């Protein structure tokens, strides 16, 4: 008796004549045996994930933000199952000693196979320590019947909170920061040359208010 090696989601054709001993390594939703000219082919289909939501992308709009200012974080959720799902997505920021919450949004009636882009706004305040990188963490709540939960959480990107006007994150507002602002001067979000960190107030354009912030904190350190 020859042993046949079976690969999930594939077709295996035995290469020897005679009885075949096939071992399925996981639950099989469907198997079909076809006989033609003495050749037996077994087609194995893995079962679909009935309920499965996932987070597939987390992207902060800035890597450096001045304390007291806001920055946006884009999170993409996906329904990888076969049923319409409603679930919550929460975004956190975390350093070595502290974890804080950016916010929670509800994804309502997301159809199977669809994705949803969520935009979270992190309004940094005095409780956020300066000159520390914060990891950005997104978490999707587990839906009823879901077993594949490893992809319900995603950690991606860091944001450093510093003194407003410190565009390069070195802890001081000085010439390099002014240079970055100059390179992005009058540029708007989406334009070539736009530097998100230079758009200190986050209004979409690097202009007078941003220059004023650099001037106000000139030579100051975090």
Helix content: under 10%
Report the CATH topology name of the largest domain: Immunoglobulin-like
Which CATH class of the largest domain applies here? Mainly Beta
The first-to-last residue Cα distance is 74 Å
Described by strand count, sense and barrel closure, the largest sheet is: 5 strands, mixed
Computed Rg: 26 Å
Q: Please provide the count of β strands.
A: 13
**Residue runs with pLDDT of under 50 for 5 or more positions:** 1-8
Fraction of residues in β-strands: 35-45%
Please identify, by name, the CATH architecture of the largest domain.
Sandwich
**Broad structural category:** mainly beta
Number of helices: 2
Shape: elongated
Oligomer: single chain
Number of domain modules: 3
| Order of strands, widest sheet | 7-13-12-9-10
SSE topology string: EEEEEEEEEEEEEHH
What is the CATH superfamily of the largest domain?
Immunoglobulins
């Amino acid at each position: 008796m020859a042993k046949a090696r079976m690969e999930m989601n594939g077709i295996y054709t035995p290469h020897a004549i005679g009885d075949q001993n096939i071992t399925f390594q996981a639950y099989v939703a469907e198997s079909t045996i076809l006989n033609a000219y003495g050749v037996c082919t077994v087609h194995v289909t893995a079962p679909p994930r009935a309920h499965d939501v996932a987070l597939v992308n987390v992207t902060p709009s800035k890597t450096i933000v001045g304390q007291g200012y806001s920055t946006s974080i884009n999170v993409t959720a996906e329904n990888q199952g076969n049923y319409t799902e409603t679930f919550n997505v929460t975004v956190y920021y975390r350093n070595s000693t502290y974890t804080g919450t950016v916010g929670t949004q509800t994804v309502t009636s997301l159809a199977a196979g669809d994705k949803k882009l969520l935009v979270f706004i992190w309004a940094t305040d005095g409780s956020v320590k300066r000159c520390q990188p914060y990891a950005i963490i997104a978490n999707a709540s587990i839906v009823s019947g879901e077993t594949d939960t490893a992809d319900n959480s995603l950690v991606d990107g860091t944001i450093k909170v510093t003194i407003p006007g410190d565009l390069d994150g070195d802890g001081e507002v000085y010439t390099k920061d002014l240079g970055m602002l100059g390179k992005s001067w009058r540029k708007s979000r989406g334009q070539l040359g736009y530097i998100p960190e230079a758009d200190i107030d986050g209004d979409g354009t690097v202009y007078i208010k941003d220059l004023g912030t650099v001037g106000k904190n000139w030579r100051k350190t975090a």
